């Protein structure tokens, strides 16, 4: 048995995606220079041919000039977007420092530190999806506290407004957009979460709305499985009864799910996901897993968690799972492997 798994601290280096980011910026700059020079040459030739009376050639060159102008505008827009994000980061960080200077609560200060750490990476990026969820958690919890203080609420809104819809890069190439609608609702003095949730087994033929919700949740998960990118593939898997899927709903919205696959002598827990806008304090993943334990009271259960996903590892340990080894292999730019876990009381079955 593996007693403990060392955390992959190297993955928290802000340099991990900087190379990719700088290549993108270089690409945009190169495109701007190339298209600008080409456009000027084409424009000059179009003018000459037009002056000499070669109308067809002048028209063709004029069309090329227009296309070159469009290409230049697109590249400029992309580069400007990258530059604006950097300016937003600086403004948000300054507002956070101003808020921190007015605080005495150590718990709130810790939340603000988490947000500052996330917003100070260049480019905006996360080593693990759990870091993205931790940022969401800190923003939700801090907003609850700040909503009680009118002075801090005003300053806090200056942080939330530019953060909303800000893109963050993940090590596996995904880009996630920060959705702070729930946070904004809290700052209005309203509760975006309902009191009760329900858990149900997803039917073999789910609705299109459920398929879209599943795809949305997978985009927010630690690993986005290839099959989740096409709704048709998800439908085929469920129709073949390859997976048993339990979903948690809040009213009509799907806020979490767990996927299980039957193997000889065991059930493998493949995915346990909660929506990023749902705080960790609601224990959605834990609630789903407790439901699974009740649904399969005598079955042997196995689970895997990414090495950097300490939250999932701690949850499984709390429910009685123990480490059984590490499956090596990269599951992201700096992921070292998957931690295998098995339910303790059924480990010898």
Q: What do you see in this structure?
A:
By secondary structure, this protein is α+β, with helices and mostly antiparallel strands. 51% of the residues lie in helices and 17% in strands. It has helices spanning 18-52, 55-101, 106-119, 129-146, 150-163, 181-187, 208-219, 231-239, 284-295, 310-318; strands spanning 125-126, 167-170, 175-177, 198-201, 244-250, 253-263, 266-274, 301-306, 321-328, 337-343. The chain has a 7-stranded mixed beta sheet, with helices on both faces. A 3-stranded mixed beta sheet has the order 1-2-3. Strand 2 and strand 3 form a beta hairpin. It starts with 17 loop residues before the first helix and ends in a 6-residue tail after the last strand. Mean pLDDT is 78; it is low at 1-20.
Topology:
Blueprint: H1 18-52, H2 55-101, H3 106-119, E1 125-126, H4 129-146, H5 150-163, E2 167-170, E3 175-177, H6 181-187, E4 198-201, H7 208-219, H8 231-239, E5 244-250, E6 253-263, E7 266-274, H9 284-295, E8 301-306, H10 310-318, E9 321-328, E10 337-343
Parallel strand pairs: 1-2, 7-8
Antiparallel strand pairs: 2-3, 4-5, 5-6, 6-7, 8-10, 9-10
Helix pairs in contact: 1-2, 2-3, 2-5, 3-4, 4-6
Q: Any idea what the radius of gyration is?
A: 25 Å
Low-confidence stretches: 1-20
Largest sheet: 7 strands, mixed
What proportion of the residues is helical, as a percent range? 40-55%
How much strand? 15-25%
Strand order of the largest sheet: 4-5-6-7-8-10-9
The ordered string of helix (H) and strand (E) elements is: HHHEHHEEHEHHEEEHEHEE
Give the overall silhouette.
globular
Strand elements, count: 10
Mean pLDDT: 78
Structural class, from helix and strand content? alpha+beta
Distance between the termini: 16 Å
Helix run count: 10
């Amino acid at each position: 048995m593996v007693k403990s798994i060392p955390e992959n601290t190297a993955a928290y280096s802000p340099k991990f995606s900087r190379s990719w980011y700088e290549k993108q910026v270089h690409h945009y700059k190169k495109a701007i220079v190339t298209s600008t020079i080409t456009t000027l040459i084409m424009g000059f030739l179009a003018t000459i041919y037009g002056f000499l009376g070669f109308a067809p050639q002048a028209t063709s060159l004029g069309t090329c000039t227009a296309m070159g102008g469009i290409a230049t505008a697109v590249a400029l827009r992309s580069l400007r977007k990258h530059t604006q994000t950097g300016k937003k980061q600086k403004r948000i960080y300054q507002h956070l420092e101003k808020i921190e200077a007015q605080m005495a609560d150590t718990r709130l200060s810790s939340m603000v530190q988490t947000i500052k750490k996330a917003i100070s990476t260049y480019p905006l990026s996360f080593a693990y999806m759990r870091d993205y969820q931790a940022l969401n958690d800190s923003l939700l919890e801090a907003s609850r506290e700040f909503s009680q203080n009118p002075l801090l609420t005003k300053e806090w809104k200056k942080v939330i407004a530019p953060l909303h819809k800000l893109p963050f890069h993940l090590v596996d190439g995904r880009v996630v957009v920060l959705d702070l609608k729930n946070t904004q609702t809290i700052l209005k003095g309203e509760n975006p979460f309902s009191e009760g949730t329900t858990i149900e087994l997803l039917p073999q033929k789910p609705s299109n709305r459920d398929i879209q919700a599943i795809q949305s949740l997978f985009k927010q998960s630690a690993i986005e499985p290839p099959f989740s990118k096409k709704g048709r593939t998800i439908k085929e898997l469920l129709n073949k009864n390859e997976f048993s899927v339990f979903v948690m709903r809040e009213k009509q919205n799907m806020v979490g799910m767990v996927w299980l696959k039957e193997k000889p002598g065991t059930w493998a827990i493949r995915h346990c996901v909660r929506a990023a806008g749902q705080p960790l304090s609601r224990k959605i993943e834990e609630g789903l897993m407790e439901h699974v334990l009740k649904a399969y009271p005598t079955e042997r259960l196995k689970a895997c968690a990414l090495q950097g996903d300490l939250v999932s590892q701690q949850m499984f340990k709390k429910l009685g799972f123990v480490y059984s080894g590490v499956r090596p292999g990269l599951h992201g730019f700096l992921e070292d492997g998957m931690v295998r876990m098995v339910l303790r009381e059924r480990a010898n079955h």
